[in-house]
Amino acid sequence: MLVMTMKWNKKTALLIVLAAAILLCALVLAVSGSGGSAGTASRRLKTNADRIMFLESLGWEVEDTPVSEKLVVIPKTFSEVYETYNRLQLEQGYDLSQYCGLEATIHTYKVTNYSGYSGEVVADLYVLNFQVIGGDIHSLALDGFIHGLCKK
Question: What range does the domain containing 50 cover?
C-alpha cells in the first residue's frame, strides 16, 4: 500500500482553489454554449454575417440584409398557437418553453433558393444571447406553409 503525504500551506491551498475555480469556469462555459439543436450547439451568432452563414449551412441562400429584426417576449403561458409552433421547434431540437418571459430577437431573411414554390419565402431566426433558440422557413401567403429550418 502506497501512502502519500502533502504538507499544506497557504500556497498549496491557493493553487488547489485556483485550479478548482478554473475547472468550474470551463464547465460553466461548456454548458452555457450548448443550447439549441444538433449542429448549432456552441455556435454564437453575434453578427448578421454569422446568421447568414448559419442559414447557408442549412442549405438556404438569403439576401444580405434582413427583411426585419424585432424584439419579442416569449410568453410565460403559451396559447394554442404558441403550443403548435413550439411542437415544430421541438421537432428540430429547440424548445421555446425554456425561455418563457424572456426577450428574444426575430431576424427575418428573404430566402432566394426555395425550389418548387413561386411565392415569397422567408427564414425566421429566434436569437437570444447570440444563440438560435428557434426558427422556421415559411411563405408569406395566407394559405402558405411553414416548416423547420433544415432544407427539405
Answer: 32-147
Number of neighbours of residue 80 by Cβ within 10 angstroms: 7
- 20/26 Cα distance (integer angstroms): 10
Q: What's the total number of domains in the chain?
A: 1
Q: In what order do the strands lie in the sheet with 146-147?
A: 68-73, 103-111, 121-128, 131-139, 146-147
Tell me the pLDDT tens digit for each residue of 84-104.
Answer: 999 999 999 999 999 999 999
Whole-angstrom Cα distance, residue 67 to residue 64?
Answer: 9
CB 136 within 8 A of CB 123: yes
Domain-embedded: residue 20 = no
Q: In 10 A of CB 104, how many CB atoms?
A: 21
